[in-house]
Design brief:
single chain, Growth Hormone, Chain: A, 14 helices
Amino acid sequence: MTKTIAATSLAPLYLAGFTTAFGAHGVASVLGAETDDIGMTLLGLGVVLALYDMAEVLLKPLFGVLADRIGPKPVIVGGLAAFAIASLCALVSPAPLALALARLGQGAAASAFSPASSAAVARLAGKERLGRYFGRYGAWKSLGYAAGPLIGVALATAWNIQTVYIALAVLASGAAAWVLIALPAVPPVPRTRYTVADLVRQTVERGFLVPTLLLATTTAVLGVAVGFLPLLATRLGLHPLVGAAAVALLALASTALQPFVGRLRDTGRISARTGGLAGLALAAASLALLALLPHAVTLFVAALAVGAMTGTVTPLAFAHLADSTPDDRMGRTMGNAELGRELGDAGGPLLVGAIATAATLPVALGTLAGISLAVGAVGWGALAPPAPPSDG
């Protein structure tokens, strides 16, 4: 019965994952392309883009706890409905203030349904199929990251920027209705009372901290790749579409690989320990290659490698988290893990930008490569199975 439920009823969650990815990157691309036309300054653009991530950093852990208390389904439905309403705020006016309010509302709403969706995947998939279903969920999010900018820019070019927000409102409304109808109820589990000391211990225990560190490092490298691959393409004298194509290749590689890696994890052929080290070592090598040999070919090699890293580490780390977390705090764990990812997504580009300003971009990329390799090594050591007790 669990297999039937998971196979037939998790699809609405994949659409929810696609929606938040489309909302994050699709709108960002459109705002960047339309900045001059809507009278927004570069500083204003930066602030508006950051509002989505700021809301997620602040609210994801809170909504994760709420999903534990009332069950993830109502949090997902409510978050998607709020996302649709926030998107419609942009219809009031294409002025920067209205777009900023819509962006903030979308980020707050995504903070609700994103960790709750991860918790629902964990609860419904069953321990023996965590990898494949987190792989599918992550693949649809990656598809949203890849297709969102293309769809968003196409809609804004054919009609106007408000059309993008209408499309997001329709998409979120459809996802909310589908979740309400098709997703099985996931009742809250009676909660164990935790002291402050318990909460601190749970946060620093290796079953949570190490996979979250792997996720944060993955998104740090991903954020740098998405932001700096187009910059490198321009500096190499290539057409701007070359950088966009490299980012699209990255996202497509991640989309294709995640379900496959998830299945390998469920059959015991790969783990968060081995996959984390392999993925981050691959990312480190690609960053070092870009730093030492910037070229059109190495640009696409690095994009493919970072996509492979994302597609490998993400489902393995989330499945490990779900496997080592009791159901009564699954939402809180997923919310805190998502927080770690957001901090990595913001921190990676900030770190590389700061080092590149103080030194050079190759030095900055080399530094991130070293950090990635170090985190992979930490994961390899910390997630090793305990040694059997000696007979002596």
